[in-house]
Amino acid sequence: MPVISYREAIRHALAEELERDANVVVLGEEVAQFNGAYKVTEGLLAKFGPNRIVDTPISEAGFIGMGVGASMLGIRPVMELMFWSFYSVAFDQILNNAANVRYMSGGLINCPIVIRGPANGGTNVGATHSHTPENVLANHPGVKVVVPSTPSDAKGLLKSAIRDNDPVFFLENTILYGDKGEVPEGEHVIPLGVADVKRAGTDLTIVTYGRSVLHSLAAADLLQKEHDVSAEVVDLRTIRPLDIDTVLASVAKTHRVLIVEEQKPFASVGSQLAYMIQREAFDELDAPIHRLTTVDAPAIYSPPIEAEQLPNPQRVLKAALELMA
Amino acid sequence: MSKKPSATAEKKDAESAASVSPAANVGINQKLTKDDRIDLFRMMMRIRRFEERSLRAYQAKKIGGFLHLYIGQEAVAVGSCSLMGKNDHVFTAYRDHGHAIAVGMGVNELMAELYGKATGCSKGKGGSMHYFAPDRNFWGGHGIVGGQIPLGTGLAYALKYKNIKGAAMAFMGDGAVNQGAVHEAYNLASLWQLPVVFVIENNGYSMGTSQERSSAGELAKRAEGYNMAWGTCDGHDLYDVRAVMDKFLRAAREESKPSVVEVRTYRYRGHSVADPDNTYRAKAEIEEYRRTKDPIQVFQHQLVAEGVLDEALIEKIDQAARAEAEAAAEFAEASPYPTVDDIQKDVYWEADNPSERKSKGRLFFD
Ligand SMILES: Cc1ncc(C[n+]2csc(CCOP(=O)(O)OP(=O)(O)O)c2C)c(N)n1
Ligand SMILES: [Mg+2]
Predict the structure, then answer these.
(1) Fewer Cβ neighbours under 10 Å: the N or C end of chain A?
(2) Is A124 within 8 Å of chain B by CB?
(3) B125-134 pLDDT tens trace
(4) Mean per-residue pLDDT over chain B, rounded
């Protein structure tokens, strides 16, 4: 199987879906001539031309709203937000229009749009550029939210997202773009709403997603080597729909849960998970559910301190050991 | 902006650089003393050397995140901010080092901020894009394109509400003019006659997109749709920036009239240091600007022609600016980082002033 980067995996998914369906178009700032701010869309303009790979002005409310409107007539726009942090400029279009139009029309209108781009901290770009809005987005029934952690997942999930008839918000990570992994060529489609056990274990379950999966895997290695603790790592992959069954199956095996997420704690994805786990598997739990999040403050700029604000392997390890104590 | 100047225009530019700026005779410039002129020149030089030094620090991995350099645009911030009275205020975007120095912030705290140190102007919390100095009427440093424009409008609203004769300058790029918030702010400013000057620093590009590829029509002329006065000026000529900005600032301060000013300028470096700058403009275009329109060179020629500057003084100012930037880097290097405990400071006023706290309940979560 070819080994390619997360960035290339997304690009392959885009190219294949552009090839497959003439209604797929890619729009966003700098996606065409500049080849993408993070080079995800590199080469797509040359291959598919300016009708399908379209540079927009810096008008997120305008162009995201346009994408929503175009999707009503069966276009499948894949919109790039240079950073998900800029979604707030287009909040109304994303969460009033895209999320609600199907419902308010009594199911008459579909909105098969994909909005994708990076949503992460860790690159020292400060509070305005480091938002992780998966919880905010997933709070809106009608939308789907995907946060892939590996190149293979990125490709397979993006292909599903583009074929989906509902609005799908696809949250990537600038730090993962260069990460490499095996990715199947061609038709590699991962259904939305299927979690993936990235590491099997018996003593505790770490439920996580996105880049925190990598931190959790690193911590799980340390737990095994240095503390003889066997951690299972469950990668949610999709936040909504949420594969709670895979999580509960793991909890039934390990009886201890640590949630790790690059989110601020208040009303985070982990809050919802913790509620569901205690509600549906209370008797399985040998300890309260623990959670490791981003330290509760806007993103600090200072590079070495930002690394401590976010989840990292040492912080995950510490939280896991507290849970095991 | 992306059109290459013709050979004859080039020659003319080079000549005009050496000759006297037409704006030199405008009152606001005429009344500058010799020392004032030298100070303006020095200020541009200090910005240039500070940023060149910060670039080296970035390349040495001392600085994280983005670094958007203002090199080539110095006359805009220096010219505009040199007109500030005590009730005039500034808002700008993420390309903010020039404005910060022009309003009088110290380079040590600015460099330390880039290094993410506790001695930085924002204690290492904001970084390059988020400089602030309210004590100097400098309200940032904003990372979201166009997001600062309603803020400048709001500050103008507050001035008017408090009957203070002052003006807000809200700077933005040529790409920012296409944000909805900018248009909403234009309408509010005009509808309520707020003392704000919207300044478009048109450097020809928003990241890799030329002005022609992102904006319909003339940028400043959009003011007409909102019944606002507008003007343009040559951002390579500090005297012209001062002459035009003075006119609109006066209208704001004295008659509470808002306006839009488009300043034609150019950035020499990539959008940020990370931009390889090889897809959207020709190297020759950049060289052309550097050679014929560099704002520091243009003003230097001007002041030499006026007999204000000579080689020795230029050299002295340059050396001092370099030494200052070097010392700022040393200061930043030697300064401590914030601590992990500092992450949760400066979030809530009440948390930082616990003895005066009125609300109950938990403020922070884990
Ligand atoms: C709302 C929003 N969209 C996109 C960006 C990313 N971005 C930062 S600067 C920039 C280009 C802005 O160009 P311009 O307004 O001309 O200012 P300049 O950089 O030339 O000073 C873009 C697209 C952002 N910071 N905020
Ligand atoms: Mg610009």
Answers:
(1) C
(2) yes
(3) 999 999 999 9
(4) 95
**Nearest beta carbon to residue A126 from set B129, B175, B339:** B129
Nearest CA in chain B to A290: B366
Average pLDDT over residues A251-270: 98
Which candidate in B145, B340, B343 is best for mutational testing of the A interface (most A CBs within 10 A)? Answer: B343
Confidence at B3, pLDDT banded by 50, 70, 90: very low
- Closest to A64 (Cα-Cα) out of B179, B206, B271: B179
Q: What is the pTM of this model?
A: 0.96
Q: Which tokens sit at B199?
A: 């300044």
Identify the active-site residue in A8, A16, A29, A60: A60
Residue B10: what pLDDT?
41
Q: Which residues of A195-222 are buried (b: 16+ CB within 10 A; e: fewer)?
A: bbebbebebbbbbbbbbbbbbbbebbeb
**ipTM of this complex:** 0.96
Q: Where in chain A is the domain with CATH 3.40.50.920?
A: 196-324
Facing residues of B253 across strands? Answer: none
Residue A170's beta-bridge partner residues?
A: A116, A146
Q: Cβ neighbours of residue A164 under 8 Å, at least 6 residues apart? A: A112, A114, A144, A192
Q: Which secondary-structure segment (H or E) carries A182?
A: strand A180-182
Just give the CATH number of A3-182.
3.40.50.970
Candidate list A12, A129, A131, A290, residue with the active-site label: A129
**Residues of chain A positioned with their CB less than 8 A from the CB of B279:** 33-35
pLDDT tens-digit map of B180-230: 999 999 999 999 999 999 999 999 999 999 999 999 999 999 999 999 999
- A129 among known catalytic residues: yes
Given a contact cutoff of 8 angstroms between Cβ atoms, the answer to whether A54 and A27 are in contact is yes
In a domain, B357, yes or no: no
Least distant ligand from the CA of B143: 1
The ligand 1 atom at the shortest distance from the C-alpha of residue B201 is 21
Domain A196-324 has CATH 3.40.50.920: yes
Classify residue B340: in a domain, yes or no: no
B256 conformational bin, left if phi > 0, alpha if psi -120 to 50, beta if neither? left
Any ligand 1 atom below 6 A from CB of B265: no
CB contact under 8 A, B347 and A37: no
B38 CB burial (10 A radius; 0-12, 13-18, 19+): middle
User: Looking at the predicted structure, is the pLDDT value of residue B19 above 70?
Assistant: no
HEC string of B225-252 equals HCCCEEEEEECCCHHHHHHHHHHHHHHH
B359: in domain: no
Radius of gyration of chain A from Cα atoms? Answer: 19
Q: Is the CB of A128 under 6 A from ligand 1?
A: no
Give dist(CA B302, CA B49) in Å, integer: 20
Domain containing residue B164: CATH number = 3.40.50.970
Query: What does the alpha-carbon distance between residue A227 and residue A231 come to, in Å, rounded to a whole number?
Result: 11
- pLDDT for B16 equals 46
Residue A238, strand partner residues: A146
Tokens 């103008």, residue? B156
Contact at CB, B343 and A300, closer than 8 angstroms: yes
